[in-house]
Amino acid sequence: MSALANRRFLKMNGLGNEITVLDLRGTPLRVSAAEARAIAADPRSRFDQLMVLHDPVTPGTDAYMRIYNTDGSESGACGNGTRCVAWAMTADSEMRGTKTGGLMLETKAGLLPVEQVSETVFTVDMGAPRFAWNEIPLRDPQPDTREIDIVTRLPDAPELQKPSAVSMGNPHVIFFVKDAAAYDLPRIGPILEHDAMLPERANISLAQVLKPDHILLHVWERGAGQTRACGSAACATLVAASRKGLTGRKATISLPGGDLLIEWRESDGHVLMTGPTELEHEGTFSPALFAGAA
Ligand SMILES: N[C@H](CCC[C@H](N)C(=O)O)C(=O)O
């Protein structure tokens, strides 16, 4: 039987980005890719991202997070999930600590300071974006990641070329388009996600700049498909738009699930993401869920 059987989880969302939170602090347990897929397959614990809390690694931090996509792959960043974890560690009776004030979370990509804005709204310091082609990573050297070469040619969307590429601890490719809603993302998303220029695949964004402080965004997520919102994509998109001179350093990013406020802070180059969280229900994993999952 999986050691995860009967463990408690929270089903949450950040702007409709489906997040399941699992607290494994104080245990040596780890979630395998097969277990993550099994959790995603149950409608009660279904997720776009599974956020797993582990004991802190770096002294002074509150928890280490491992982030899983629906397909069992792992990511270094999830903005909406990080806010959900912050809510859980602040308000949930079994996950909260005694600490008041901000939290310091960590992933394999780095440290994420979080501040509470109101009961359910949090600001996450998502760190500094990376632009070097090998840090994103891209397959081939690119002199300027504001406009990269990709291999895919879509006959019915020839304008989808020369996207921007940014790492927010996870890889993002952003196409600036006239109408972000005009594309069949479930069809073109997987093709672009697997472009030969992207050795670790990427999250694919279609961004429409409405005003210098307002962007409309649709996202196809690596390993999870089309989601109602993606926080790290919103951060990557604001940074890419600002680098191209399309916006300033602060904008509202409107996603199908709602709005995020993103600021690319001048003083230290970090990206701040502010948005809501919502608890849907809690539950425990049924042992039957893991039959066949290693
Ligand atoms: N929804 C998440 C991002 C998940 C990214 C993941 N799909 C990846 O493989 O990088 C967010 O709010 O930032």
Automatic annotation (TrEMBL):
<dbReference type="InterPro" id="IPR018510">
    <property type="entry name" value="DAP_epimerase_AS"/>
</dbReference>
<dbReference type="Pfam" id="PF01678">
    <property type="entry name" value="DAP_epimerase"/>
</dbReference>
<keyword id="KW-0457">Lysine biosynthesis</keyword>
<feature type="active site" description="Proton acceptor">
    <location>
        <position position="230"/>
    </location>
</feature>
<feature type="binding site">
    <location>
        <position position="49"/>
    </location>
    <ligand>
        <name>substrate</name>
    </ligand>
</feature>
<feature type="site" description="Could be important to modulate the pK values of the two catalytic cysteine residues">
    <location>
        <position position="172"/>
    </location>
</feature>
<dbReference type="GO" id="GO:0008837">
    <property type="term" value="F:diaminopimelate epimerase activity"/>
</dbReference>
<comment type="similarity">
    <text>Belongs to the diaminopimelate epimerase family.</text>
</comment>
<feature type="binding site">
    <location>
        <begin position="231"/>
        <end position="232"/>
    </location>
    <ligand>
        <name>substrate</name>
    </ligand>
</feature>
<keyword id="KW-0963">Cytoplasm</keyword>
<feature type="binding site">
    <location>
        <position position="203"/>
    </location>
    <ligand>
        <name>substrate</name>
    </ligand>
</feature>
<keyword id="KW-0413">Isomerase</keyword>
<feature type="active site" description="Proton donor">
    <location>
        <position position="78"/>
    </location>
</feature>
<feature type="binding site">
    <location>
        <position position="17"/>
    </location>
    <ligand>
        <name>substrate</name>
    </ligand>
</feature>
<feature type="binding site">
    <location>
        <position position="170"/>
    </location>
    <ligand>
        <name>substrate</name>
    </ligand>
</feature>
<feature type="binding site">
    <location>
        <begin position="221"/>
        <end position="222"/>
    </location>
    <ligand>
        <name>substrate</name>
    </ligand>
</feature>
<feature type="active site">
    <location>
        <position position="78"/>
    </location>
</feature>
<comment type="function">
    <text>Catalyzes the stereoinversion of LL-2,6-diaminopimelate (L,L-DAP) to meso-diaminopimelate (meso-DAP), a precursor of L-lysine and an essential component of the bacterial peptidoglycan.</text>
</comment>
<feature type="binding site">
    <location>
        <begin position="79"/>
        <end position="80"/>
    </location>
    <ligand>
        <name>substrate</name>
    </ligand>
</feature>
<keyword id="KW-0028">Amino-acid biosynthesis</keyword>
<comment type="pathway">
    <text>Amino-acid biosynthesis; L-lysine biosynthesis via DAP pathway; DL-2,6-diaminopimelate from LL-2,6-diaminopimelate: step 1/1.</text>
</comment>
<comment type="subunit">
    <text>Homodimer.</text>
</comment>
<feature type="binding site">
    <location>
        <position position="69"/>
    </location>
    <ligand>
        <name>substrate</name>
    </ligand>
</feature>
<protein>
    <recommendedName>
        <fullName>Diaminopimelate epimerase</fullName>
        <ecNumber>5.1.1.7</ecNumber>
    </recommendedName>
</protein>
<dbReference type="InterPro" id="IPR001653">
    <property type="entry name" value="DAP_epimerase_DapF"/>
</dbReference>
<feature type="site" description="Could be important to modulate the pK values of the two catalytic cysteine residues">
    <location>
        <position position="221"/>
    </location>
</feature>
